[in-house]
Amino acid sequence: MEGPEGKRRERVWLSFHERYVRRTEYADRETGEERVLFTVTLPRGTEVDAVDLGGWQFHPRYVEPNHSRYHDEHWREVPLLADRPVRLSRDVLDADGNPLPDGEGRNQKECAEVDPSRLGEALVESRRRWYEQNCRGRAEERADGAGGLSARAQEARAASEAIGTPCDVTPRRR
Description:
By secondary structure, this protein is α+β, with helices and mostly antiparallel strands. It contains 3 helices and 10 strands; from the N terminus they run ββββββββββααα. A hairpin with a 6-residue loop joins strand 2 (21-27) and strand 3 (34-41). The longest helix has 19 residues, at 116-134. The N and C termini lie far apart (71 Å).
């Protein structure tokens, strides 16, 4: 994308799993043309300035399928302009977790703006923390040789042998 002086504008690319990206197709009210609206929800633990932005949403212009060799086909790439802040929003909720309506019957919205590069850093940091909490133990088990998938398979085989086979293995007719 080119800017006003004809120079190429810098972009920040963010990667999200497909469960955080929603695609909605709708018809334009004026022209009747089919359009697409993307909604990206930030995962829990995405912290910017010590504020958890998990559950906040934004609407990028477009989303591309994954082109990275580090992710599989279930990931989506979201390009954002580096010089334009990302507008995040979420519903204002009451103590029970229900959205509060405004005077016109719509849900009240809370808004914030975040620099795209800081948002990208926060996503990387939240994924790193998640990995340390959930996957670190498994990697250490595999390094020791005590644990991992092969050990679990051996345990399953031993359990099935202990159960044995049923007395009557021939199928019965009704």
